[in-house]
Amino acid sequence: MRKLVVAFIFLILGFVGQAQELNCTITIDASQTGQPNLQIFKSLESQLKEFVNTTTWTDKSFKTQERIDCNMSFIISKMDGENFTASMQIQASRPVYASTYDSPIYNYNDRQANFKYREFEPFNFNINSYDSN
Q1: Is the pLDDT of residue 59 over 90?
Q2: How far is 48 from 43, CA to CA, in rounded Å?
Q3: DSSP symbols for 10-57
Q4: pTM summary value
Q5: Are 22 and 7 in contact (CB under 8 A)?
Q6: What letter would DSSP give residue 64?
Q7: Residue pair 76/113 in contact by the 8 Å Cβ criterion
Q8: What ranges do the domains of the chain cover?
Q9: CA-CA distance, 14 to 10, in Å (whole number)?
Q10: Closest CA to 50 of 26, 73, 81, 80
């Protein structure tokens, strides 16, 4: 999960000076795990969506159409208790001022996005320290 938080921080730091809130779509593909109960992956996906899209990353206010659009895709290949082995793809784009175009600004692929996740444990963001999930 630490790599996931680091990726989020890099995503946010990539927009320093032009930082905006996010409009993020998150997908989790856990078909490679062979787990019959996919509820934990649905919980992870919904918690991540809520965390990324509702966290205020800046002290500025932006309209919905001004938010940075991003897509995060996780392909989870292995689950061992609370430990997940996955790969992660992040793509971001932002609207071009006074147009209907989006401009790609970030593309990142992490083939070793391994993390720990406890279902229903809240995500906490603190810029100054690493707390938990």
Answers
A1: no
A2: 8
A3: HHHHTTTTS---EEEEEEEE-GGG--S--HHHHHHHHHHHHHHHHS--
A4: 0.75
A5: no
A6: G
A7: no
A8: 2-116
A9: 6
A10: 26
